[in-house]
Amino acid sequence: MMRTRFIQLSRRAYASNAKNLTIGLIPGDGIGKEVIPAGKKILESLNPKYGLSFKFIDLQAGWETFQNTGKALPDETIDILKNQCEGALFGAVQSPTTKVEGYSSPIVALRKNLGLFANVRPVKSVDGTKDRKVDLVIVRENTEDLYIKLEKSYIDEATGTRVADATKRITEIATKNIATIALQIAQQRLEQNGHATLTVTHKSNVLSQSDGLFREVCRETYEANKDKYGGVQYNEQIVDSMVYRMFREPECFDVVVAPNLYGDILSDGAAALVGSLGVVPSANVGPNIVIGEPCHGSAPDIAGKGISNPIATIRSTALMLEFLGYPEPAKDIHKAVDANIREGKYLTPDLGGNSTTQQVLEDVLSKLD
Description:
By secondary structure, this protein is an alpha/beta fold. The protein is built from 14 helices and twelve strands.
């Protein structure tokens, strides 16, 4: 899928050139239980060629876990990820649409607890298909914005009607971190392709304090590091016009950096440009661990039918390996996935086919071999 070799921020495995990696497996809910085993199979297949071996630890999180234990994210899951794992694969979460006392999203909590400050979401079409030419990376700040989940509800005394407030938090430190990794990714693409742009997405014309700070710090980070990243073209785009332009002319964008909420919306929308959310991966990146996570949700309407698309998880597995410092096996995984999509013989229903999850996995494995 990708041709960019991403920054290896996690050093635990990379520094020692480890051949034995411990990977946490967190299926979560719905189709997460069907696609995470596919990622595990892909990793297991890498041993003969690359000499990599993996220890897998099954971990719990999600709505079903909350119903069974009263906790959506057990302390044991956090402890094992922090102290035993170099990487992890996270499936999907089926969160209720109305407030449930004591429940909050486990993936949001994981990002905070593990310092996973960046969510990197590459969106790329496959050469030889009918999809439009798309090759962009959305770098989403992962720890703040409205996702800090500081909300309150109350009755307005003057009108007697219900009111809900939510706090949007943007900090200089988090913004500088996300701007830096976005610039690093853009610089790599510049070295590879001879050109690269960074587009900072915001709504500072309305949110002059919060989004204004995000915009200012991104620009300051770029200006302060022009000796490193001066070859990267710096752009800014208001988020609503960004959505319009992304669908009208996606070829104009390369690396896009955005606050948490905008990044979430943009990357899910961008999936429509390449056929399905079922093919778009992501990596939650922090200083000590990387968690691969498909961009799709739990899809309860198809859960248990064996037709969920494993491609996003397989690509997320490759993305995790790239950040852990293993670009060569990741490259082979991407090639195998591209070949599967290009041939079109084994595709799940979201891509217009009638194949099962297992059939797609087996086809990718055969091409990987």
